[in-house]
Amino acid sequence: MSITTTLNGGYGSRVVIGGAGFFMNNEMDDFSVKPGVPNMFGLIGNQANAIAPNKRMLSSMTPTILEKDGKLFMVVGTPGGSTIITSVYQTILNVIEHGMTMQQAVNALKFHHQWLPDKTIFENGAFSDATIQALQSRSYTLEKLTNTLGRMDCVLIRPDGSYEGASDPRADNTARGY
Fold this sequence. Notes:
Layout lengths: L63 E5 L2 E7 L6 H13 L5 H6 L3 E4 L4 E5 L5 H9 L4 E4 L7 E5 L5 E5 L11
């Protein structure tokens, strides 16, 4: 099973369900409250994502299960708003295309290009100076992050059938086996 839950912002809506002890989320921010105005994450929405009855907001939640030859191969997930899809994709590619272990793939530095606002964010060290110069020469707007992009939690089924759990060491995550 793979699942993604979210509060959206810190402490969600700041409303705790009495007797249950959990916060309600503030996913309403994932709607476009006013077209062209950024939400709490700086993402710019439009009329298509306006709040209306019977609609669901845009979300990048991507709990992912991969199979190989009809058997469970990998389970991948992360928080991170609009950066979730690229974090998940880069982690999967690191295992499949680059032969990394699950933990190496999780530890690998990541980047994300956002359409609106039009900028590329990247973890410190993810791009070489030459890559930065090449992107800037093509008019990319770059922003070096001081924190991690995504906080991956993953499981890889190894060829011998054992499990390799991996969690991002740059965050407060932990992988435990059984």
